[in-house]
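2.7 Reproducibility. Because tokenized structures are sensitive to small changes in the input, we list the exact sequence used for Fibrinogen C-terminal domain-containing protein, including any N-terminal residues retained from the expression construct. No trimming or masking was applied before prediction.
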Amino acid sequence: MAASWLIRLIFLAVNVLSANLLVISNSDFCASVFETKNDHVLVGHVMNTSAVADEFECHQKCLRNNSCKSFNVHPGTDNTKRVCELNNKTRQTTQDKFKKKKGSSYYGHVKATCQDLLTNKRKQTGHRHPDYRGKKFELPKKRGWNSKDPAYSCKSIRDSGDSKGDGRYWIDPENSGNPLKVYCDMTTDGGGWLLVSNITMESSTPPSQLPIKTSYRGITSDQMVLTKTAMTVLRTHLSFTQLRFHCSKNNGRKFHVTTVANSTGEAAVQYFSGQTDVQPASCGSYVRMENDNSGSAGVCQKWGLESGSFEVAKWGAGFDQERLYDHPAFARDLYHWALNHPDYSGGQAKRWECDDYLVGVNTGDFWKIYVR
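Resulting structure tokens (single pass, no recycling of outputs):
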């Protein structure tokens, strides 16, 4: 027994001595750690490109490829996908190929000394991420980036500094443990916008039915319009204070306004959230975004239909469940935001207008509504 313990003691001493010698003899490298650089990419060394759901999936692809030293993630044309590029070099080895690209992100290995890992200080241009867990690097743990660590809202992700740009995030406004994967606009007007209605024409043939969602959990869909009831429940759990209406037609017309943070803007939020049926005043309740070139936004005094009267300077047309998408803003015979009107029957859409008084649709036309 004594001999056995002596052998173990000698073995342990040899291993400790070997480890110390390793650090002394190779002080320039102890382990591979991980860095993230937003709005940058490595070009010229891409060996594989694929569509992924998020950064985590791209990271897993890199781990499975022995030649992968870093990867780039770009926004995709499809809101549900991102573009993953695996690189066979890092930015440290080819600094001239490291370029700025807004909206994209670079992730890569960085060599670090053991002292760096112990003191959490920089050795090279890279850094040790606080989530480092040994010789394998991990994606930084960011609120909203995966279903196990959802955020409260798009705005809370922005405010906490965990934004990765426009794209899909996980939120759990009810704190129920049943999160939603939603689309967040993190760039427009400071970011933090949750997409709650989205119709985007993928062809010049409109769908036979609108994708009407009666539950706010329908915001996980690519195409959706919410009913008043869905919006009411959403605001019960998510204390948003602004709405943003953004539609665009291929003829160049864009209607893009955001409700303001005052009592007039709040009245509009309450109306479209179903907390009141009183149609709110239009003038003074919104501001025009930079790319707005609509006729609608310039004639707020001509908006609305109330009790059979037009041009009442109010939002909406008095509709109930359809108020968010069927004429939320319009001036009679001039400018209309209109889906599903006038022949509303079982979800059948007959009119597709965005500001201009045109029924036809084109590929790329869209109607989007956000809350923040």
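Residues 2-25 form the longest helix (24 residues).
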